[in-house]
Amino acid sequence: MLKLHTLSRSIRRNLPVIAASTGLLITSPTILAQEEAADDASTEQIVITGSRGAPRSVADSPVPVDVFSEDDLVAVPFTDTNDILKTLVPSYSLGRQPISDGASFIRPATLRGMPTDKTLVLINSKRRHKSALVQIGGSGTQGPDIATIPSSALKGVEVLRDGAAAQYGSDAIAGVINFQLKDNSEGGSLSLDMGQFYEGDGEQFTVTGNIGFALGDKGFVSVSGEISDQSSTSRSEQYCESWACVDSTSEDFLSGSGFDTSLSGYTEESFIAGLGDANLGGENVVQPWGQPNASAQRLFVNAGYEINDTTRLYAFGNYSASESDGSFYYRYPGNGTIENLRNEDGSLYSPLEKFPGGFTPRFFGDITDISIVGGIEGEFANEMTYDFSGRFGSNKIEYTLKNTINPSLGEDSPTSFRPGDLINEELQLTADFTQFVDLGMANEVLFAFGASYMEESYELVEGDEASYIAGDFATSDPYGFCADGAETAAGLAVIATGSTLDCSNPDDAVYNVVGVGSNGFPGYSPEYSGTYERDSFGVYVDASTDISDAFFLQTALRYEDYSDFGSELVGKVAFKYTLTDEINMRGSAGTGFRAPTPGQQGTTNVSTRLPNGLPVATGLFPALSDVGQALGAEALRPETSVNYSLGFSGSFDSLTTTIDFYRIAVDDRFYAVSTLDVSTDETSGDAYENYLALVSAGVEGAESIGGVNYFQNAFDTITTGVDIVATYTMDDTVFTGSINYNKTEIDSDASEFLNNENQFDLENNAPVFKGVVSAKHDFDALSVLVRANLYGSYENAIDSDATNIQEYDPTVFFDVELTYSISDSLTLAAGARNLFDTYPDEDEGDECCGAVYWSSNAVDWQGGYYYARLNYTW
C-alpha cells in the first residue's frame, strides 16, 4: 500500500493514503491505522467520511459518524447489507412493501427520516450509482440498491449522520454511507448461512466468500462473492371482503357486492376447482402478503497496485444478478377485469375460461447491476496530493408478468407478458487534490478541492405489444352491434345466428369496457418509452485546520450546474471544540441541494393501489407529460435544505458516548400527490374532469383507470431529532447502545397536493423512537450476543380524511446468537432473531384483501427466525 513519506507536519499525523470520493477527497487510513495499532493497542478508530482531507478519530470528528468493523457486520444475523444497516443504525429504517411493483424487490429505506435518495452512498469513497427503480408512491425514491453489495466484500462501513451536500454533492442532505471493500492480498473466508421463520416458511440459504491474491509484490486483488436463495412467506388470511369473499369457512363464501356469478362460463364447481390455481405462488391463499421469492449471485473485485512510494493505481467493480417474484391483488369475477364481453360473432366470452377461479397476477423482476471504477492517486513534487478517477455504473430491471391477461384483447390475450425494462446508467470523471498552506495561523490549513463531471441516463424500454396495446374491448360495442339502444344490421345478423345480444339492456355485455395492457402492470408503450438524459458539473473547495489545540474548524463550498435544473451554490461550516480531556463539543450548519433524477422526471406506471381502501387501477404520469400537464402538474424543481447539528462526545474510562441533536429543513420536497379519482360518471365532478383530461391527453383505456397522480415539489418539511450512542466495556463483556428520536413535520400548506391521510401519515406513521441495545460476552471459545431492537409508538391514518386513526404500541424484538470457536479458523454460530416471535399490532382497516398486518409498517411483521452459520477463515 502507498505511504506518503513527506507528510510529517503535525496536522498530518493522521493523513495516510489519499483516496478520492465522488467530487470530493477522502482519505484511507488502512495502513497507518494498522501500523499504529501495532504500537498502541488503544489507538482510536479513524474515520474517513467525517471530514475532508485528513481523517480523524471518531471522537475528534466534527460531525457524528458510526464506524462498524468487519466483526460488527458479521455479528448481525442477516446477510442482506440493507438489513445489517437497519440493525446497527437506529436512524436507518427499512420498509417491506409486498404488493408494490418493483418496490417488492428493491426495498425503500430512510436515514434520519429522509428517503435514500437524500443519502449519498459511497463504495471506497466513490459515489455508487442509482437503481433503475423509482418508487411509485410517496417520496418517489430512486437511490442505490444497497442489497447489491454483498456483506462478504466489506471491511467496514461508516455512516455519516449529518448533512454534507457541500462536501459530497447532491444526495447528501441526510448523510453519507461509505462502504469500504476488503483489500487483502492473501487469505480468505467462506461462510454458509441457513435458516427459516418460525412459521415454517421463508427458508434462506446463503454462501458468501472472499479470497485475496497478491498482485506482484506491490499490489492485491480481493475477490468476494455471494450466492443466496430465499423462499417466500405468507402472513395472510384468505381473501374475504364485502365486495368478494372466497374464504370457504365464511358464510359469505362466493358472494359480495362486486362478485358476479352470472358471468359466462361460471359454475360454482369450476370456480372452486380453479381457486387452487388462482395464485401461482403456491400459497393456501389467493393473495399472499409477505417477503417474495428471491435469489441472487453477486461478485465484487477490489484491486490496487503501487507504482512507486507516492503513486498508486486502483480499481474495483461488481456484477450482480438477482431474481425476485411477488403477487398483485387477486382478480375476482366482476371486478372490472373479469367481465363478460361480446365477441365479433355475438357470443359471450369471460376470462374465467382462462382462469376458472379468478387470478392473481404474478410479477417477476430480473435485476442486473454492473459497475467499474478506476483511478490513480499520489503526490506531486510540491506535496500536493491528487486523485484522478472515473466510474461507470448500470442497473437494469427486466420485468415479466405472468398469470394475467390484457383484458381488452378478449380471448386472444396471452397470459404472460414482457412489459418492458428500466435502465439507469451513470458515467462520472473526478479530479481531487489536497494541499497544506501556511496562512500564518497556529497550524497549516488543509485545502481540498476538485471538480466532477457526470452524465446520467434513464431509459424506459418498450414492452411487447400485447402488454400495452388497446384491444377491441377497450371501447364500448367495438363491432357496432347497437345504435341508440337498438340493434344495427350487424347486431341483427349475430342475433340471427343465436346471439343473446340485447341492445336495449344497458347491462348487456356489449357495452362493457375493460382495461388496456397486461393487467397489474401495463407495458411501456412507444409513447411512454424513451431515454431521459442530463449532465452535471461540480467544483468544490474545502478548508480545515486546528485553530488551536482545542478548536478544529472546517468550511466547504460547492458549486453544481445541471443541464436540466440550472446551478446552485451550497456551503457548510463544522467545528469540534475540546471542553475537557474527556468531553468534546461539535456542530455544523450547512445548505443542501438535490435535483430530481432523470428517472423521477420520466417514470410512468399504471398499477393497482388502495387510495380509498379499495383496489383501484392508478396511473402515475410524468409531470411534464401531456397527462401531467392536463391534470395541472408543474415542472419539477430541485429540493433545497438547511441542516443544523450540535453534539457532544465523551470518553470516561470504559465508557464512550456521543449525543447529537439535528434539524433538517427541506423546501420544495419531492413527493407524489395524493391519488386523484377518475370516473366516467358525468355527475362525479372532479373525477369526471380528470377522466376528460386523460382522454384529451390520448390515454388509451382511460375508462378503466380509477385514479391518477404525479410527482411534484409539494411542500416543505422540518425534521428534528437526536442520536445517542454509547459503548461500555467491562472485563469480557461489551455493552453497546444507540438510540434515535426522529420527528418530521410539514412546514407549509400541503393541502393542494396531499389529502389529510397522506399528510398525517407523513408526520406520524414511523416510530419516533428507535433503539438498539446489545451485550456480548466471551467465555473462552464461546461467545454470547444478546440484542434488543426497540421501536416506539406510532400512528397510521386509515381513511382519506384522517378521521380514523390506528395507534400502534411500542415493540421490542430480542435477538440471541451463540458462537463457538471450533478452531482458530473455524467457528459455528446459531441463533434466533425476534427470539420470542413478536409481531406488531394487527391492521385495523388500512389494508384489505387478506392482509393481517399493515404492509408498509417499518416494524417487521414476519415473526421469529432461527438460523445457523458456519464460518471458515484462512
Detail the topology: elements first, then pairings.
Elements: E1 17-20, E2 25-28, H1 30-39, E3 46-47, E4 56-57, E5 65-69, H2 70-74, H3 81-88, E6 92-94, E7 109-111, E8 114-115, E9 119-123, E10 126-127, E11 154-160, H4 165-168, E12 175-181, E13 188-197, E14 204-215, E15 219-230, E16 240-241, E17 244-245, H5 268-275, E18 293-308, E19 311-327, E20 341-342, E21 348-349, E22 362-379, E23 385-402, E24 416-437, E25 445-461, E26 482-483, E27 486-487, H6 489-496, E28 530-546, E29 551-562, E30 566-578, E31 583-594, H7 598-602, E32 605-609, E33 616-620, H8 626-630, E34 639-652, E35 655-672, E36 676-677, H9 686-696, E37 707-709, E38 711-730, E39 733-746, H10 756-764, E40 769-779, E41 782-791, E42 794-797, E43 805-808, E44 811-821, E45 826-833, E46 865-873
Parallel strand pairs: 9-12, 33-37
Antiparallel strand pairs: 1-2, 3-4, 5-11, 6-7, 7-8, 9-10, 11-12, 13-14, 13-46, 14-15, 15-18, 16-17, 18-19, 19-22, 20-21, 22-23, 23-24, 24-25, 25-28, 26-27, 28-29, 29-30, 30-31, 31-34, 32-33, 34-35, 35-38, 36-37, 38-39, 39-40, 40-41, 41-44, 42-43, 44-45, 45-46
CATH fold call: Maltoporin, Chain A
Terminal Cα span: 21 Å
- The unreliable regions are 1-43
Number of helices: 10
What is the CATH superfamily classification?
TonB-dependent receptor, beta-barrel domain
Overall mean pLDDT stands at: 88
Please estimate the helix content: under 10%
Rg is 29 Å
The global form is globular
How many beta-strand elements?
Answer: 46
Based on the structure given, which CATH architecture is correct?
A: Beta Barrel
**Which structural category do the helix and sheet elements fall into?**
mainly beta
Profile the largest sheet: 22 strands, antiparallel, barrel
What's the CATH first level?
A: Mainly Beta
What count of structural domains? 1
Taken as a percent bin, the fraction of beta residues is: 35-45%
